[in-house]
Amino acid sequence: VDFRSDNVGGAHPAVLEAIVRANRGAADPYGADLWSQRLAARFNDLFEREVAVFPVATGTAANALSIAMFTPPWGAVYCHPNAHVNVSECGAPEQFSAGAKLIAVPGDSGKITGHGVERAIHREDAVHTVQPSLVSISQASEIGTLYTRSELESLSEACARHRMHLHVDGARFAHALVALGASPAELTWKAGVDVLAFGATKNGCLAAEAVVLFEPARAQELAYRRKRAGHLISKQRFVSAQLEAYLTDELWLSNARQANALAQRLGAALQSAGFALATPVETNQLFVTWPASVAANLRARGFAFYDWGALGPDVYRLVTAFDTRVEDVDALVTAARALRVQDATSPTKR
Ligand SMILES: Cc1ncc(COP(=O)(O)O)c(C=O)c1O
């Protein structure tokens, strides 16, 4: 049973069916198709205002394009040290922005604060230093924690004071939305967010993400940037069809609720079995401390999960997804609990 990530599973059947339905006859290429047109209207409704939406195939592309929109080559981008854009995108944000500098801002619970960003700003008006341009956060964060509305607002106030913009890596935006009980508008432009990398692949799509730009007047620039990045997909109808199905009947929200609920169940059961969690469970990721022997035994029994040394020794990450089964969660807990009992009663431990 695989708890390594929320991208190890398949796509939701409704998404696959939408792709099959879209597979009929000819359609205009490069985003001029009906699916993409409908999607544009749908995103306007979703965000309660006019936005520019640009489907792409990966989260890395969505982030790097978003960052490049607001960061000149001499710009500075402030983000958490463990941000996906900082450690897992192979320099794409730096490349797409033609050389901007990412500056890691330490912060508790996987998050940065407006105050932390302001402290990190090396303000020098001389030509010698990179200039504050953008703050980039992940919502939910890389360790599954959430930025509340007031935390977002304090970040956007810091941005306003330093004439910076605010980017959200929303690879798990749906998980954050349902956990916070907020609307898409409240968690983005109403709180000062300028651009969102809207994730969908981790939560039911096959390969579909989107850049959502809250300054639609700049859509043409993003169109050129996306083409140059190789993410203007000629048969875009298939990507838009995925996103359309993802939003239909609130599939994205019910998928995220399911993933979050299973993480809660898993976290509570592991704690009651006597294992400590390294962070509170707020969305669909949890970080548990297991003796190395317990982790090795679980792996030998077919449970898969990643080591998460960033949160300390013997910490392991467990991720639930829309397609995680309750019985798999319960099987993991039962196996871990049995190993704990064994561990506690083994002669060497007495
Ligand atoms: C926080 C975060 N952002 C973005 C991504 C998207 O990455 P990819 O380019 O693999 O779609 C991921 C995927 O692991 C992620 O965890």
Q: What is the H-and-E element order?
A: HHEHEHHEHEHEHEEHHHEHEEH
Stretches where pLDDT falls below 50 for ≥5 residues? none
Largest sheet: 7 strands, mixed
What compounds are bound to the protein? pyridoxal-5'-phosphate
Strand order of the largest sheet: 1-7-6-5-4-2-3
Specify Rg, calculated over alpha carbons.
Answer: 21 Å
Number of strands: 10
Percent strand: 5-15%
Distance between the termini: 32 Å
Percent in helix = 40-55%
How many H/I helices? 13
Decide which structural class fits the backbone: alpha/beta
Descriptive account of the structure:
The chain has 13 helices and ten strands. The two termini are 32 Å apart. With 350 residues, it is of the alpha/beta class. The protein has a seven-stranded mixed sheet with strand order 1-7-6-5-4-2-3, sandwiched between helices. A three-stranded antiparallel sheet has the order 8-10-9, with helices on one face. The protein has helices at residues 13-22, 34-47, 59-70, 84-87, 92-96, 114-120, 149-161, 173-180, 219-228, 237-247, 251-272, 292-300, 326-345; strands at 52-56, 75-79, 101-104, 131-138, 165-170, 195-199, 209-213, 285-289, 306-307, 315-319. β4 (131-138), α7 (149-161) and β5 (165-170) form a beta-alpha-beta unit.
